[in-house]
Design brief:
This protein is mainly α. It has one domain. 63% of the residues lie in helices and 4% in strands. It has a two-stranded parallel sheet.
């Protein structure tokens, strides 16, 4: 009787312990970021801004080249111009060159700030969406399955997973953030090979 009672207690404790095990999920953040609509919108906005900056810089460069050519022409006809006009032309050329250089540096800084601000905002939304999905699906822990260059975290190593993707929260997070996951590719299993028949004995 004691033995049976002990076995029942062990079985009951095992069931309780198993039931109390926390659910653990994971997210492929690189997959989420690549397919996130906000990232695609950011890429389009960056392209538009870069094209506008390039256009403005080209206009400033063309004006500088035009004024510089006129200044060089004035030097060839030095007898027909005054020192004051030459100095004024030289200062104008120098100011145009300085303005173009400053605009280029300012545009690059503005673009980098724009990218970083938008990216940080997307990261915050991704973290918040991860927390919401984890809470809705009852996950106690959620791990990142890939390295993220922004926070320089090392890649976690997963030695074994037998969940058939059911604990992968990546698509759920994409949907939570208003993006559509890409269609899944069907993997065709390789055809079974026919074993070679042994050669007949002589």
């Amino acid at each position: 009787m004691k033995k049976i009672f002990f076995v029942l207690i062990v079985a009951l404790v095992s069931q309780v312990s198993f039931a109390q095990l926390p659910k653990i999920g994971y997210v492929y953040e690189d997959y989420v970021m690549i397919n996130l609509k906000e990232i695609k919108d950011l890429q389009e906005d960056v392209t538009t801004k870069r094209e506008e900056f390039t256009k403005q810089l080209q206009a400033k460069g063309d004006l500088y080249q035009e004024k510089y050519a006129l200044y060089q022409q004035s030097l060839k006809n030095i007898t027909n111009v005054t020192t004051e006009s030459l100095n004024a032309a030289l200062k104008e050329v120098q100011d145009l060159k300085k303005a173009a250089d400053e605009y280029q540096a300012s545009a690059e800084t503005e673009l980098q700030t724009f990218i970083q601000t938008r990216y940080n905002d997307i990261r915050s939304k991704l973290d918040e969406a991860t927390k919401k999905v984890a809470a809705e699906k009852g996950y106690k822990f959620v791990f990142r399955r890939n390295a993220d260059a922004a926070n320089r975290e090392s890649t976690p190593v997963l030695l074994y997973a037998n969940d058939n993707g059911k604990d992968n929260l990546s698509d759920a997070i994409l949907i939570k953030m208003g993006s559509t996951p890409p269609p899944k590719q069907q993997v065709t299993p390789p055809a079974a090979s026919t074993p070679n028949k042994p050669a007949p004995k002589k």
